[in-house]
Design a protein that fits this description.
single chain, alpha+beta, 4 strands, 11 helices, Outer membrane efflux proteins (OEP), 445 residues
């Protein structure tokens, strides 16, 4: 085989299982994931639920108005004991309504609770946005894991066929006395091992396809394959400080941790405000109407208006308020420590991703050269075997190295793409546009 045809042959083998009637593209897969991923759906529901705490806390500071309507019937029975009144029964009805208004004028605990709910709502939004970005990364990881598994199946099948072909050659050579039976046994052992590896590769492909189904809720016939040539560059990769600053400013998990610390601080202030007095306005208007009875009861209309201020000064609550203050202080300290941990973790993830992109570029270039070298070595070994200067064991070793280099090169290319997404995710900048760009490196369906 000529070296100039090496790359074309490699990508042909790797794409044998990727040529369906309609292959699922990366952009389409992301759209399906955004519609069907249960992890994202749960995160969205959680955000909606938590965001309702904000209007609930605000409602406690707004006027509370209620209307109470009533109607009653009164029956009176009299018996003549003194001769003054006659015996008889009298009925009369009474109806009316009460309109009440309550307005908080000062309650520091409610004010702090409202601020805490705003921080909690902002934290929930940041967590939800982080879940969106995490889905993009998970989808890409799973998508390329399927492609890598497909490649491994193709390589394993090719290796199995190569070992089968060598086994048949050795069997024929043994029949005519050119080699010993040990060469046949070794070829048989290697073929059996290749069969086992092919079974493992097929099973791994099935597992990866199930993982993709879990996210997109569809089992596509195939996926778009990676093109032969992809760019091995990344803008601003020479400045790790720049990327670290981007992560500290935009990482959504870090942003959520900041809001969590703010909420914990506001909650501490709210509990401490339990020692403060509260002032509220109460207003009430009631109207009652009753018709008269034959006994002289009822028969009047009454209107009452009441306006008052209520000042409540907490004095002692059995130590409950003080205990809540101590509890919230510890929770605030925990949130502060968790924020510090998330900040360190963000920096670590960014630096690991940054170095990973650099290493991935170098690995793709190195494994490409290894692939060319092992292909040359395999061709030379096969030629030596045909003229009798190399043994079948040498051929098997050379073929094994070739298939390994093919797998390594393919995996390095997938790893490089995922590292590009990881550094964007660590910086809080990952979006569907990144998937759109990477999809241009895949073959059209």
């Amino acid at each position: 085989m000529k070296l100039k045809n090496l790359a074309h042959l490699f990508f042909y083998i790797a794409g044998l299982t990727s040529l369906p009637l309609h292959a699922l593209g990366l952009v389409e897969a992301l759209e399906l994931a955004q519609q069907n991923d249960v992890v994202l759906q749960a995160a969205q529901a959680e955000y909606i639920a938590i965001s309702e705490t904000e209007p609930q806390s605000t409602a406690a500071l707004l006027p509370s108005v209620s209307l109470d309507l009533f109607a009653q019937k009164t029956t009176t029975e009299t018996s003549n004991a003194t001769g003054v009144f006659t015996n008889g029964t009298s009925d009369f009805t009474t109806d009316g309504y009460t309109l009440s208004l309550q307005q908080t004028l000062y309650n520091q605990q409610l004010f702090d609770t409202m601020q805490a709910s705003e921080s909690i709502s902002a934290q929930a939004l940041a967590s939800y946005e982080a879940a969106k970005q995490a889905l993009i990364l998970r989808l890409a990881q799973t998508y390329f894991a399927v492609l890598a598994a497909k490649d491994n199946v193709a390589f394993a099948e090719a290796e199995k066929k190569a070992n089968e072909r060598l086994l048949k050659q050795n069997q024929e050579r043994f029949k005519v006395g050119l080699i010993a039976i040990t060469d046949v046994k070794e070829a048989q052992a290697n073929y059996d091992s290749a069969v086992a590896q092919a079974i493992i590769a097929h099973n791994n492909l099935s597992n990866q396809q199930e993982a993709l189904w879990f996210i997109i809720n569809r089992r596509p016939e195939s996926l778009n394959a990676l093109q032969e040539s992809i760019p091995l560059t990344f803008p601003e990769l020479e400045n790790i400080k720049l990327w670290q600053d981007k992560a500290l400013a935009n990482n959504l998990n870090l942003r959520a941790a900041r809001y969590a610390a703010e909420a914990a601080k506001n909650n501490y202030d709210s509990q401490h405000a339990g020692h403060y007095p509260t002032l509220s306005l109460n207003a009430q208007y009631s109207a009652t109407s009753a018709d008269g009875s034959s006994l002289g009861f009822g028969g009047r209309d009454v209107d009452d208006t009441t306006i008052g201020l209520n000042l409540n000064i907490p004095i002692y609550s059995g130590g409950f308020t003080s205990s809540k203050v101590r509890q919230s202080a510890a929770e605030f300290e925990q949130a502060r420590i968790l924020l510090e941990r998330q900040q360190r973790q963000t920096i670590q993830e960014m630096r690991v991703a940054y170095l990973g992109v650099q290493a991935a570029i170098a690995q793709v270039q190195a494994f490409k050269q290894v692939l060319i070298s092992t292909q040359t070595a395999t061709e030379a070994t096969q030629l030596g075997f045909e003229v009798g200067t190399r043994t079948s064991v040498d051929v098997l070793l050379a073929q094994g190295n070739l298939f390994k280099s093919q797998r390594d090169y393919a995996q390095a290319r997938y790893d490089y793409i995922l590292k590009l997404l990881e550094i964007k995710y660590a910086a809080g900048l990952l979006s569907s546009d990144d998937i759109q760009q990477i999809s241009q490196w895949l073959t059209a369906s």
